[in-house]
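pinned: reference chain
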Amino acid sequence: MPPQRPKRSVRQYLRIAGVVVGLIVIAGGWYFNRPDDTKKLAVGDCLTNKGSDSDPKIEQLDCGDAKADYKVLKKDGSTSIAQLACQSVKGTTAAIEWKEDSDSFVLCLGDNK
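pinned: its structure tokens
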């Protein structure tokens, strides 16, 4: 007969559970507190899109930076449809539909000249 494995005590299970819960809390804190430049953007701010129109990767930049392609002309949280939000905004050359969690808005962008 093979030797029996030692039984784990309740304390050992509690330690393991504590470590797992701790890791979940740390991961959740990181996820919900990671930087999101698009929520910080306001009208007049400049940015570059390192992604695509359908999958934007926004980076906020100083307007004097040569990499700053666009300037925010309007930030509209009342619709997530770019054509509606930006159709009357003079100088719009691009629009980004953005949704994160329950927030959804459109950035109307003009060239940063």
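why pinned: The beta strands are 46-49, 58-61, 70-76, 94-100, 103-111. Helices lie at 10-33, 37-40, 82-86.
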